[in-house]
Amino acid sequence: MTRRVRFAPSPTGYIHIGNLRTALFNWLFAKEQGEAGHFLLRYDDTDRERSKAEYAEAILADLEWIGIRPDAIDRQSDRIAVYDAAVARLKAAGVLYPCFETPEDLELKRKRQMARGLPPIYGREALRLSEAERQRLVAEGHVPHWRFLLPNFERDPFAPRRSEVTWDDLVLGPQVVDLASLSDPVLVREDGTYLYTLCSVVDDGELGIDHVIRGGDHITNTGIQIALFQALGFAPPRFGHHNLLTTVEGEGLSKRSGALSLRSLREEGIEPMAVASLAVLTGLSGAIEAAPDLAALGRRLVLTEVSASASKFDPAELERLSAEIVHALPAERVRPALEAMGVPPEEVDAFWSAVRGNCARVAEAAVWREVVYGAPSLPALEDAGFLASALALLPPEPWGPTTWKEWTEAVKGATGRRGRALFMPLRLALTGLDHGPELAALLPLIGRERVAARLA
User: Fold this and answer.
1) Would you say residue 173 lies in a domain?
2) 209 and 78 share a domain?
3) Is 255 annotated as a binding residue?
4) In whole angstroms, how far apart are CA 376 and each of 227, 332, 371, 403, 430?
5) Among 111, 284, 289, 431, which one is most buried in terms of CB atoms within 10 A?
6) Number of Cβ within a 10 Å radius of residue 65
7) Is the predicted pLDDT of residue 243 greater than 70, yes or no?
8) 112: domain range?
């Protein structure tokens, strides 16, 4: 059977690495089937005030940066008529009922129940209203919200009994939710807009989603949604609930805070597969290593091995993973970036081979481009006699990989210097830095004319 999954972000901010975890779990799970797997990007954009087109565009761009290319894209804002029809079906079936309590009324009821040691569950008081009473409330200007009547009773809705909803979770194994322990959920607000629970179920049912993988904070909601799937005549999909990511301090991630947003990580020059690897492998068994591509990352992902508890991760790991990837990148992958920095096309291979071990980001190659081809800031050295001797012994071109060794051997013989006293003044005079790539590789790129000018 084809796996049809979805990633359903709200375009109310830039997605972060925790959101990416959900997207990748779904993408990798579906693409185990190759092209047969179907990945839907569905924008949950019914929040009219906070949803922005620029955030939707950014989400798509961020996913594509990682390598996720949706097979289809949908928007809840385009599907209002579908939700209208579903609400009409629920009303006709008698399982969606109007409620007139204000938020203040409900909060007061919850406090009273808790003060009595009772769970703060809605008591279905609105079901006791007669049709005449409802019409009177409407005539007085009261606008109802609408609740879904959970199937947690035999005949009398005011006598709920334990009603278990069970499923075999793709990640956690057998799960149970007792509907008698929950309030009837609100599906329609007073202003007529629809809540996530309704829209998500209708979309998954209408669009044929057969597997839903999402965060563990949705487990209770899954029990309600399974009941709603059945009330609407849909076969529920298979569910999986992965653990959530937190910062090292244990704080949750939020689009509003911008913490570890994919947009910021991309702007910082972090490699996309470093982000993807950390998003997926945190909390799994085995070492966190940078996967070369999504296919390799998919081979590491075993849903039943995902930790059941929240996983903390260190953002410093991104630096390590990104550096590992950069150090292994072939020159052809970075050629456009290097040429844009001003590296001569014919020297890209040699330049990248020389400097990549000193770059945690590709953008850092610009430092070494300046060292090789530009006019780096050079310190004033109190070693003029030594540098003059080195200049006098500078070999003629062409230069190659052995030129540095041949030159320094000659300088050592002429000056008697060795080790740090020999090499450090030459490095400082040629690069302006006390660290960096091997000068055996840099020297032919700097060239005799620039070397001579820097020693003079």
Assistant:
1) no
2) yes
3) yes
4) 69, 26, 5, 22, 9
5) 431
6) 15
7) yes
8) 94-165
The answer to whether residue 375 sits within a structural domain is no
Q: Is residue 179 part of a domain?
A: no
- Round to whole Å and give the CA distance between 426 and 420: 10
Same structural domain for residues 442 and 408?
Answer: yes
Q: 70 with 209, same domain?
A: yes
Structural domain count, the chain: 5
In this structure, the answer to whether residues 14 and 58 fall within a common structural domain is yes
Q: In terms of domains, do 322 and 280 share one?
A: yes
The CATH number given to whatever domain includes residue 266 is 1.10.1160.10
* pLDDT tens, position by position, 42-79: 999 988 888 999 999 999 999 999 999 999 999 999 99
Alpha-carbon gap, residue 362 to 341, rounded angstroms: 11
Q: What is the pLDDT of residue 103?
A: 92
- Residue finishing a domain among 245, 276, 307: 245
Q: Are residues 315 and 335 in the same domain?
A: no
| Distances from the Cα of 48 to the Cα of 8, 23, 373, angstroms | 16, 23, 53
Same-domain status, 8 and 75: yes
- For residue range 106-142, list pLDDT tens digits in order: 999 999 999 998 899 999 999 999 999 999 999 999 9
Please report whether residue 257 resides in a domain.
no
Beta bridge pairs of residue 74: 42
Q: In terms of pTM, does the model score above 0.90?
A: no
